[in-house]
């Protein structure tokens, strides 16, 4: 039997094989096989590569350049910046922050094509009667614009970066957006892994320091097959100059190598901090300050007020050490794939399977408003854990806000009447089936140091796979936590230039 030469394989089968390879491997394959070299200009190959980032239709990309091809869209935009797409969260101390990158394709009124970066903003109108979270508004802060061949000029580049900030009226509400061309060739920097962590001095025990909660938690660390092709910074060499300070004022937060001298137990010591993204804002400009204000995590003033001056050697300057205010490093979040099994369950009376609760959620906290959480199911212990993706000066990001054991269900008849009434506030008759569990939550005064934090008993009620209510012992009302529903960009309202809001109430 004669061996089959690779060139005799049908083209359709070759495409199937290539779909399992990275782009660099595909190009290497074409380069080593003369018979297939002509496929480098075949649109089917580039169509498949674009499809990996959700781009299946060229029509939206041809609004300003009718000659665009899948090859152009991939090689000029998606190859370098496609790995940005998705939700990222920062390790900004205490409060954290969330940004999102998505392809601008089907919004014909946008006036441009490319990738947009948006920061999540939640309303701050916290009232005593509120107990449910709000959906975020999405504020544009960065454009990676795909230019037409005419607009690109003579330098041959078909992409450009534009920073954006939002003007406000006398009431502080956003009005119009303003664009700023990026003066640098490196608006985004990819930080390499490193072993540095945040520490905070205990003002009650001046000689004591505590490791600040690591971020992101292990279950949220994305196993990304590729990273954005932007300037790389070796953080190991960048942070080698950062020695632990010998004398610091109390209440000071700083960065140092993770080591055994801190109060953390060995089993809780952090893993290496993975790759992260740094937003390299335009230097020394009033516009940069406005963009930084837009990107500042919610409740930044609360944070500064609680801890005073925040200066440490993990700044954004090119030559360490720097004492600039830390702007946070962003990490891609590993999110579970939504399951459709629970949506079409034939046995709703059996309750919600615990693993169906995993994913991004939004929760309301009486002092700080809406915060972002990640619900994680621990198979071995049966625990549902609500990890804070964003936090506050009392309970920071990277901490388990609350948890309960799904193997120990509590009967409604065993709950105190006021607790049951609070959990069933809109269903006094008890017609809606709920699952009740006892659990614990994390409480702390400002600073989250060991001497000021404690666990608080609570009761959790699973209403459905998209809603959980928590009755903390310290609260009169049950607080509502809801699954983040994702986005339907085409139905969102543009409330101001570059600011979008979901149409459907959360």
UniProtKB/TrEMBL annotation:
<feature type="signal peptide">
    <location>
        <begin position="1"/>
        <end position="23"/>
    </location>
</feature>
<dbReference type="Pfam" id="PF12937">
    <property type="entry name" value="F-box-like"/>
</dbReference>
<dbReference type="InterPro" id="IPR045048">
    <property type="entry name" value="FBXO31/39"/>
</dbReference>
<protein>
    <recommendedName>
        <fullName>F-box domain-containing protein</fullName>
    </recommendedName>
</protein>
<dbReference type="InterPro" id="IPR036047">
    <property type="entry name" value="F-box-like_dom_sf"/>
</dbReference>
<keyword id="KW-0833">Ubl conjugation pathway</keyword>
<dbReference type="GO" id="GO:0016567">
    <property type="term" value="P:protein ubiquitination"/>
</dbReference>
<feature type="domain" description="F-box">
    <location>
        <begin position="3"/>
        <end position="49"/>
    </location>
</feature>
<comment type="pathway">
    <text>Protein modification; protein ubiquitination.</text>
</comment>
<keyword id="KW-0732">Signal</keyword>
<dbReference type="InterPro" id="IPR001810">
    <property type="entry name" value="F-box_dom"/>
</dbReference>
<dbReference type="Pfam" id="PF12014">
    <property type="entry name" value="Cyclin_D1_bind"/>
</dbReference>
